[in-house]
Structure formats: C-alpha cells, structure tokens
Amino acid sequence: MAMAAHARRADFAVLKAAGGTRGQLLSVALGETTLVVVLGAALGLLVTLPSLAGMASGLSQATATDVGLQLSWGILVGATLECLSLALLASLVVTWRTTRPRAA
After folding, report:
1. pTM of the model as a whole
2. Which of 76, 80, 83, 89 could share a disulfide with 41, CB 3.0–4.6 Å?
3. pLDDT along the chain (104 residues), means of 10
C-alpha cells in the first residue's frame, strides 16, 4: 500500500493544483485504501469458501460422519481489521509525506 501511495504522488500533485486541500487528499487516499482492503477480503472469502466446502464434504464421505464447514468469524473479522489498519497507516503516512509543503 505504501508503494502504491508513493506511485500516486503525481496524481496528488494534480489534485492539489486543482484546489484540493491536504485533508481532501488524505480522505481520498484513505477511502481508496479501505475500498481495496474490503474488496480483497470479500474476494478472498469467495475464493476460499468453495474449496473449504469441498474439503468438508470429502472428509464427511471418507469418515462417514457429518463434517460441517466451520469458520471462526471473530478471527476472520479480526484479521481483516488488522490488515485494514496497517494499510490505512501505510497509506496515511505516505500520503501525508507526499502532500506536505516542501522547504525552499
């Protein structure tokens, strides 16, 4: 996320030249970061669930017992929130440093 934010410094310069304030640029960066993390978590879950369901079904047939799909939603949400907080911190630091006024 830090590298992506650093690569967008030219975009931030254009937005700043168009009249964007530092706060607006930071909120745009944080909004983009949140969107990327939420979409990544959702797509990761969508990719993982069919495989886990197939493994549970195969294990159920192999052992002749009922094996259900077990997910720890607390761990899933906690990991997603931790990734979000780290991504937001990285994006915030890089965007803050990119948009700060330069000493002449």
Report:
1. 0.79
2. 80
3. 78 84 89 94 94 92 90 93 94 85 68
